[in-house]
Amino acid sequence: MSEKESSCPEWEDVEKKDYRGIWVLGDIHGGRISEASLQMLTPAKELATKLDVDVTGVILGSKISKVAREMFYHGADRSILVDEPSLGTYFPEIYASVMAQLAKRFKPELILIAGTMRCREMAPCIANILRVGITADCTGFDVDSESRDVLQIRPPFGAIMLASIRTPFRRPQIATARPNVFPLPKRDEGKMGKIIRAEVDVPKPRGRLVNSQSLGLGRVLLEKADCIVSAGKGIGGPEGIGLLEELASQLGGVVAGSRKAVDAGWLPADRQIGQTGKTVKPILYIAVGISGSAQHVFGIREAKSVMAINTDSEAPIFKYADYGVVGDYRDIVPALIEEIKRTKLSRPNQLAGMEGMTQRK
Amino acid sequence: MQILVGIKWVPNTSNVRFDPKTGALIREGVPSIVNPHDLDAVEFALDLRDRYGGEVNALSMAPPSAIEGLEQVLGMGVDSAILVSDRIYGGADTLATSYVLAHAVKRISNQRGKLDLVIFGQETIDSSTAHIAAQTASWLDLPYLYYVRSVEIKENGFIAVERWLEDEKTIYDLPLPAVLGVAMKSREPRPVRLIYKIRAKAEKPIEIVTNEILKLNPNCVGLKGSPTWVSKIDYTPEVKRKREVFMDPDAGKAAKWLMQKYADEDINLIGGAHR
Ligand SMILES: Cc1cc2nc3c(=O)[nH]c(=O)nc-3n(C[C@H](O)[C@H](O)[C@H](O)COP(=O)(O)OP(=O)(O)OC[C@H]3O[C@@H](n4cnc5c(N)ncnc54)[C@H](O)[C@@H]3O)c2cc1C
Ligand SMILES: Nc1ncnc2c1ncn2[C@@H]1O[C@H](COP(=O)(O)O)[C@@H](O)[C@H]1O
Predict the structure, then answer these.
(1) CATH fold group of domain A12-197
(2) Which parts of B191-228 are beta strand (E)?
(3) Is B164–A91 a contact, with Cβ atoms under 8 angstroms apart?
């Protein structure tokens, strides 16, 4: 490949050296910032050290100035704030336009964006307005010290391989990562930073928000669950889910599954774990009747401990598990439930007032 | 309704292998399929046509082998199909791909005199970026929404679009034309019917659009038009796990073993005194 950029008239040449600093876009909804976007401060800070630059949190919305603090508490050096009533209703192309205007004005070299649903929707549009590249679902970053290019590492074609993606000629670089791929930085309420209020032209919305309704309040979010009991094709049918639900409720956990379990219709699509589903970080992940494909285990890399129950002693899942039991889940799971109940009975006072049962000491 | 659906012809990634030396994808012997999530998009479009009338056309940028995929969706009842194919479009990242697709959409829209909806799948199984719908919408300067589950036509050229995010369900009214990404697994794609396939073959051959027709600047397409470069490929590093396996067929013993293991760990299985 030649080292010279071909010139497409759709974009102007950029001076790479004019672009400095790392941005993290805040994913804000209902006046709160998502944990997923704060998690992006982790790679941002690592890269900022390597590149010797600052980390800026970017916050867009209406009446959201308080949110800027969360960015500081989690490690941002400064925040750019666009607080406009007209941003009260989210439209992907409008938020993208605002981000693009800011990027043109302040020229960051890298924008990191969480892979929440809203952000996955707006991020490619930001890249497009700026005529730059974007790399989705990164799992790691590095810097090529010579060129200052950020190496954006992501799995191409299934989760077995990782590709390094570079953007040698365009700036800013833009990358997203799924929730829970990076840990949340420690929160420190002592940290402060500078807030830069920016004015932008907010484009007029072309549609209107007619109705919004929260989905299943009180539902434990998979991304936040401490214990996940996960069903694979091996549970054999929807009737197996009930048994797993019982185990999950004993452990204060939730039920999820592999793609095959979802494809079979035993679980809704938003319960799928893995490369094309969710990335989770429970304390305990229990894989029941799951073979352990690369795409599946990709989603549980951040689990603290993995337990596996499978009839096949050769199943790859045992390589990805801390504790495995070879056997039919129809025998093992009820025995485990029994054992948990018995232990609870023998130590009742420890359990007083406890709901969530799986926890870090 | 004039509807266009974007279809990607993807290697059936469950069979994909890599050359362990070079890290390159081995494409030989790997059959391609229509990206499964695009079948949801096709179903979505056909359902709209069934309810409101009009036409559904399929559009794919791909090598000529994708004709097979387009024939499949014609078999589902799509009215016509367009294959955008040229060597210089190869190696494109999502910016360069969406650039070509957007120009193809414009051309189709001009030909038909009208285009109401451009519908995409949520993401592809080979790259799963979910970029193309937003980027195509952006090149065309059209409003767009992802994760769409249903559409109703309203008066004055608006549609009501329902979509679900992690935590909320929203309904937006959007003016036509608009671009939609259909929620994964939100539909049951209808089966292919041989009669449709045969009729489509006889009456509406798949139109092939090359760059001689689209006349795009070669520097804006394919590898040259792509800001991102793949610089190297490695194996995913493995997470270290303990890999202790209990083999005794006695379930009671197995359960006790597990409980003991977690009692020894700093993980408290049954909850307790430590928070
Ligand atoms: C691009 C791409 C993306 C993908 N993304 C994902 C993803 O995000 N998530 C995902 O999960 N998959 C994903 N897949 C699919 C993945 O490759 C596997 O096909 C899938 O994970 C297998 O699901 P499974 O383990 O439930 O089923 P199987 O592989 O069929 O395994 C079933 C297991 O159950 C065991 N078993 C059978 N009976 C019992 C019993 N009575 N008790 C205990 N064990 C029993 C069997 O020994 C076997 O190991 C993806 C594939 C591709 C190509
Ligand atoms: N080459 C292509 N030709 C037509 N449509 C495409 C192409 N690539 C992607 N799409 C569409 O864009 C959607 C999202 O793809 P992606 O951004 O690659 O995950 C797919 O589900 C398709 O509907």
Answers:
(1) Rossmann fold (3.40.50)
(2) 207-209
(3) no
